[in-house]
Design a protein that fits this description.
With about 230 residues, this protein is mostly helical. It is about 65% helix and about 5% strand. The protein is globular.
Length: about 230
Protein backbone atom coordinates (compact mmCIF):
# COMPACT_ATOMS: atom_id res chain seq x y z
CA UNK A 1 0.00 0.00 0.00
CA UNK A 2 1.31 3.44 -0.88
CA UNK A 3 2.19 5.66 2.04
CA UNK A 4 0.91 9.16 1.30
CA UNK A 5 3.26 10.63 3.90
CA UNK A 6 6.31 9.15 2.13
CA UNK A 7 8.09 11.65 -0.11
CA UNK A 8 11.49 10.12 -0.83
CA UNK A 9 13.04 6.68 -0.68
CA UNK A 10 16.76 5.97 -0.91
CA UNK A 11 18.42 2.62 -1.41
CA UNK A 12 21.89 2.68 0.15
CA UNK A 13 23.93 -0.51 0.51
CA UNK A 14 20.76 -2.58 0.28
CA UNK A 15 19.07 -0.60 3.04
CA UNK A 16 15.85 1.32 2.45
CA UNK A 17 15.96 4.84 3.90
CA UNK A 18 12.60 6.56 4.09
CA UNK A 19 12.15 10.31 4.25
CA UNK A 20 8.67 11.48 5.16
CA UNK A 21 6.97 14.85 5.25
CA UNK A 22 7.79 15.48 8.91
CA UNK A 23 11.50 14.90 8.35
CA UNK A 24 11.60 17.25 5.36
CA UNK A 25 9.73 19.94 7.27
CA UNK A 26 12.09 19.52 10.23
CA UNK A 27 15.12 19.90 7.96
CA UNK A 28 13.57 23.03 6.44
CA UNK A 29 12.90 24.54 9.87
CA UNK A 30 16.42 23.68 11.02
CA UNK A 31 17.89 25.24 7.88
CA UNK A 32 15.95 28.46 8.46
CA UNK A 33 17.13 28.67 12.07
CA UNK A 34 20.75 27.92 11.16
CA UNK A 35 20.79 30.56 8.42
CA UNK A 36 19.17 33.08 10.75
CA UNK A 37 21.74 32.28 13.47
CA UNK A 38 24.59 32.81 11.02
CA UNK A 39 23.12 36.15 9.98
CA UNK A 40 22.79 37.23 13.60
CA UNK A 41 26.34 36.07 14.34
CA UNK A 42 27.61 38.22 11.50
CA UNK A 43 25.49 41.21 12.50
CA UNK A 44 26.58 41.01 16.17
CA UNK A 45 30.01 42.33 15.21
CA UNK A 46 28.43 45.60 14.12
CA UNK A 47 26.03 45.99 17.07
CA UNK A 48 26.20 49.37 18.77
CA UNK A 49 25.69 50.58 22.34
CA UNK A 50 22.52 52.33 21.19
CA UNK A 51 20.44 49.63 19.46
CA UNK A 52 18.20 50.22 16.49
CA UNK A 53 16.39 48.23 13.83
CA UNK A 54 17.51 44.61 13.62
CA UNK A 55 19.60 44.90 16.78
CA UNK A 56 16.52 46.01 18.71
CA UNK A 57 14.64 42.90 17.58
CA UNK A 58 17.42 40.52 18.57
CA UNK A 59 18.02 42.14 21.95
CA UNK A 60 14.30 42.17 22.68
CA UNK A 61 14.02 38.44 21.95
CA UNK A 62 17.07 37.52 24.03
CA UNK A 63 16.18 39.77 26.96
CA UNK A 64 12.57 38.53 26.98
CA UNK A 65 13.71 34.92 27.31
CA UNK A 66 16.31 35.85 29.94
CA UNK A 67 13.65 37.63 31.98
CA UNK A 68 11.19 34.75 31.63
CA UNK A 69 13.77 32.24 32.84
CA UNK A 70 14.91 34.44 35.75
CA UNK A 71 11.32 35.13 36.79
CA UNK A 72 10.33 31.45 36.70
CA UNK A 73 13.36 29.53 37.98
CA UNK A 74 15.46 32.28 39.55
CA UNK A 75 18.73 33.98 38.68
CA UNK A 76 20.78 30.98 39.82
CA UNK A 77 19.52 29.02 36.82
CA UNK A 78 19.52 31.85 34.29
CA UNK A 79 22.05 29.91 32.18
CA UNK A 80 19.12 27.75 31.08
CA UNK A 81 17.86 30.64 28.95
CA UNK A 82 20.06 29.58 26.01
CA UNK A 83 18.50 26.10 25.93
CA UNK A 84 14.95 27.39 26.21
CA UNK A 85 15.55 30.11 23.65
CA UNK A 86 16.60 27.45 21.13
CA UNK A 87 13.68 25.20 22.02
CA UNK A 88 11.16 28.05 21.84
CA UNK A 89 12.56 29.19 18.48
CA UNK A 90 12.37 25.67 17.04
CA UNK A 91 8.80 25.10 18.20
CA UNK A 92 7.72 28.57 17.05
CA UNK A 93 9.19 28.25 13.55
CA UNK A 94 7.86 24.70 13.29
CA UNK A 95 4.37 25.94 14.11
CA UNK A 96 4.74 28.80 11.61
CA UNK A 97 5.89 26.42 8.85
CA UNK A 98 2.25 25.78 7.93
CA UNK A 99 2.23 29.28 6.42
CA UNK A 100 4.78 28.05 3.87
CA UNK A 101 2.62 25.08 2.90
CA UNK A 102 4.54 22.59 5.05
CA UNK A 103 3.05 20.20 7.54
CA UNK A 104 4.33 21.50 10.93
CA UNK A 105 6.80 19.03 12.49
CA UNK A 106 5.06 19.65 15.82
CA UNK A 107 1.93 18.00 14.43
CA UNK A 108 3.82 14.70 14.66
CA UNK A 109 4.52 12.84 17.90
CA UNK A 110 7.93 11.94 16.46
CA UNK A 111 8.84 15.59 17.10
CA UNK A 112 6.93 16.47 20.26
CA UNK A 113 7.93 13.35 22.21
CA UNK A 114 11.71 13.94 21.82
CA UNK A 115 11.19 17.59 22.80
CA UNK A 116 9.27 16.54 25.90
CA UNK A 117 11.79 13.82 26.80
CA UNK A 118 14.75 16.18 26.50
CA UNK A 119 12.96 18.59 28.83
CA UNK A 120 12.11 15.68 31.15
CA UNK A 121 15.79 14.77 31.43
CA UNK A 122 16.66 18.42 32.11
CA UNK A 123 13.95 18.68 34.79
CA UNK A 124 15.27 15.74 36.78
CA UNK A 125 18.90 16.54 36.03
CA UNK A 126 18.43 19.96 37.60
CA UNK A 127 16.51 18.38 40.48
CA UNK A 128 19.40 16.03 41.27
CA UNK A 129 21.94 18.84 40.83
CA UNK A 130 20.15 21.27 43.14
CA UNK A 131 18.74 18.93 45.77
CA UNK A 132 21.54 16.39 45.94
CA UNK A 133 20.61 13.69 48.45
CA UNK A 134 17.20 15.19 49.12
CA UNK A 135 16.09 14.58 45.54
CA UNK A 136 14.68 11.10 46.18
CA UNK A 137 12.91 12.07 49.41
CA UNK A 138 10.12 13.79 47.54
CA UNK A 139 9.02 10.48 46.01
CA UNK A 140 8.30 8.98 49.43
CA UNK A 141 6.73 12.10 50.90
CA UNK A 142 4.60 12.39 52.95
CA UNK A 143 4.62 8.58 53.22
CA UNK A 144 6.46 5.82 51.27
CA UNK A 145 3.07 4.45 50.22
CA UNK A 146 2.80 7.43 47.84
CA UNK A 147 5.86 6.34 45.82
CA UNK A 148 3.86 4.82 42.91
CA UNK A 149 1.58 7.86 42.72
CA UNK A 150 4.51 10.28 42.75
CA UNK A 151 6.29 8.30 40.04
CA UNK A 152 3.18 8.31 37.87
CA UNK A 153 2.92 12.07 38.40
CA UNK A 154 6.46 12.56 37.11
CA UNK A 155 5.92 10.29 34.11
CA UNK A 156 2.80 12.23 33.21
CA UNK A 157 4.81 15.44 32.74
CA UNK A 158 6.51 14.56 29.42
CA UNK A 159 3.30 12.87 28.25
CA UNK A 160 1.36 16.05 28.96
CA UNK A 161 3.95 18.28 27.27
CA UNK A 162 4.17 16.10 24.16
CA UNK A 163 0.45 15.49 23.64
CA UNK A 164 -0.65 19.05 24.43
CA UNK A 165 1.63 20.50 21.74
CA UNK A 166 0.90 17.68 19.30
CA UNK A 167 -2.87 17.81 19.77
CA UNK A 168 -3.23 21.56 19.40
CA UNK A 169 -1.07 21.81 16.27
CA UNK A 170 -2.51 18.68 14.65
CA UNK A 171 -6.04 19.93 15.32
CA UNK A 172 -5.28 23.12 13.40
CA UNK A 173 -3.75 21.18 10.52
CA UNK A 174 -6.81 18.92 10.23
CA UNK A 175 -9.27 21.83 10.31
CA UNK A 176 -7.35 23.80 7.68
CA UNK A 177 -7.01 20.79 5.37
CA UNK A 178 -10.71 20.04 5.81
CA UNK A 179 -11.63 23.62 4.87
CA UNK A 180 -9.36 23.52 1.83
CA UNK A 181 -11.12 20.35 0.70
CA UNK A 182 -14.61 21.78 1.05
CA UNK A 183 -14.09 25.26 -0.37
CA UNK A 184 -14.21 26.06 -4.08
CA UNK A 185 -10.94 27.26 -5.61
CA UNK A 186 -11.89 30.97 -5.72
CA UNK A 187 -12.52 31.01 -1.93
CA UNK A 188 -9.26 29.32 -0.92
CA UNK A 189 -7.50 32.67 -0.61
CA UNK A 190 -9.87 34.22 1.94
CA UNK A 191 -11.20 31.91 4.66
CA UNK A 192 -8.04 29.73 4.86
CA UNK A 193 -5.95 32.88 5.38
CA UNK A 194 -7.99 33.67 8.48
CA UNK A 195 -7.55 30.12 9.75
CA UNK A 196 -3.80 30.24 9.09
CA UNK A 197 -3.57 33.50 11.01
CA UNK A 198 -5.27 31.89 14.00
CA UNK A 199 -3.86 28.34 14.03
CA UNK A 200 -0.36 29.02 12.68
CA UNK A 201 0.37 32.46 14.11
CA UNK A 202 -1.73 32.92 17.25
CA UNK A 203 -2.11 29.30 18.40
CA UNK A 204 1.41 28.47 17.21
CA UNK A 205 2.93 31.26 19.30
CA UNK A 206 0.73 30.41 22.28
CA UNK A 207 1.66 26.72 22.25
CA UNK A 208 5.38 27.47 21.97
CA UNK A 209 5.05 29.80 24.96
CA UNK A 210 2.99 27.30 26.98
CA UNK A 211 5.48 24.48 26.33
CA UNK A 212 8.36 26.71 27.46
CA UNK A 213 6.63 28.07 30.57
CA UNK A 214 5.44 24.62 31.70
CA UNK A 215 8.94 23.21 31.25
CA UNK A 216 10.43 26.04 33.31
CA UNK A 217 7.76 25.62 35.98
CA UNK A 218 8.49 21.90 36.30
CA UNK A 219 12.19 22.69 36.68
CA UNK A 220 11.47 25.31 39.33
CA UNK A 221 9.37 22.82 41.31
CA UNK A 222 11.93 20.04 41.02
CA UNK A 223 14.95 22.24 41.81
CA UNK A 224 13.35 24.00 44.78
CA UNK A 225 14.88 23.10 48.18
CA UNK A 226 13.07 20.18 49.75
Amino acid sequence: MENKNLWLLFHIAGIDIYVNETMLATWAVSAVLIVFALIVRRKVKSFKDTPSGFQNLIELAVESMDNLVKTTVGEELDYLSAYFFCMFAFILVSNFSGLAGLRPPTSDLATTIPLALSTFVLIHGMGIYKQRGNYFKQYISPNPIFLPINLIGEISKPVSLAFRLFGNILGGVIIIEFVYTLLPVFLRFIIPDILHAYFDLFAGTLQAFVFTVLSLTFIQIMAAPY
